[in-house]
Amino acid sequence: MDGSGNGYLRTVGDYVHLNPVRARLLQAEQRLLEYPWSSFGWYLAAPPHRPAWLRVDRLLGEPGIERDTVAGRQEFERRMEARRAEESDEEAWQGIRRGWCLGSGEFKTGLLEHLEGRLGEHHAGELKRESAESKAERIIREELKRLKWGRTI
Fold first, then answer.
1. Do 78 and 119 fall within a single domain?
2. Same domain, 109 and 77
3. How far apart are the C-alpha atoms of 74 and 58, rounded to whole Å?
4. From the centroid of its chain, how far is CA 48?
5. pTM surpassing 0.70?
6. Is 130 found in the same domain as 78?
7. What are the backbone angles phi and psi of residue 77, rounded to the nearest 5°?
8. Is residue 79 domain-shared with residue 61, that is, in the same domain?
């Protein structure tokens, strides 16, 4: 359900790390690393110099970087800078901008089921509404199945 292995994490990671570029907060000659409010620098830092909770292995692994080494982190930066140079098509990001979830309907349903009962004040209204709708649809499906009715949602 976490989107592993299908490019989801890489797409979202690229989107987040390239935000300063799209917002024109960096000059063309500046490295992504120079933007101080991004987590990108933490992904390039050696393990003792970054937060213990940060999982770099998964984001590095998405493009095939197998080890969290100096060479692996340099390769990650090189690839992100190359991705930055390719960055020109705003329509490429519409899938992320359209809402809180990027992925198939099945993936979204799985996320909503996982979030059921866990949403707090800080979650967006759209997410809360969709979570409530997903719960209602699940209850109806379960009841239709229990009653052995052939029609499902």
1. no
2. no
3. 16
4. 25
5. no
6. no
7. -65, -45
8. yes
Q: What Cα–Cα distance (Å) separates residue 153 from each residue in 133, 134, 141, 147?
A: 12, 11, 6, 14
State the Cα–Cα distance between residues 19 and 32, nearest whole angstrom. Answer: 10
Interval 60-108: pLDDT, tens = 988 889 899 999 999 999 999 998 887 655 555 555 555 556 666 677 6
Predicted confidence at residue 1, as pLDDT, reads 38
DSSP H stretches of helix in the chain? 8-17, 19-22, 40-44, 56-61, 70-86, 94-97, 105-115, 125-146
- Does 22 share its domain with 82? yes
In a domain, 23, yes or no: yes
70-86 and 8-17 helices, crossing angle to 10° = 70
Please give the average per-residue pLDDT across 112-119, as a whole number: 65
CB 13 within 8 A of CB 59: yes
Of the listed ranges 34-43, 55-64, 97-106, the one predicted with least confidence: 97-106
Q: Does 1 fall in a domain?
A: no
Average pLDDT over every residue of 133-138: 72
Tell me: do 40 and 76 sit in the same domain: yes
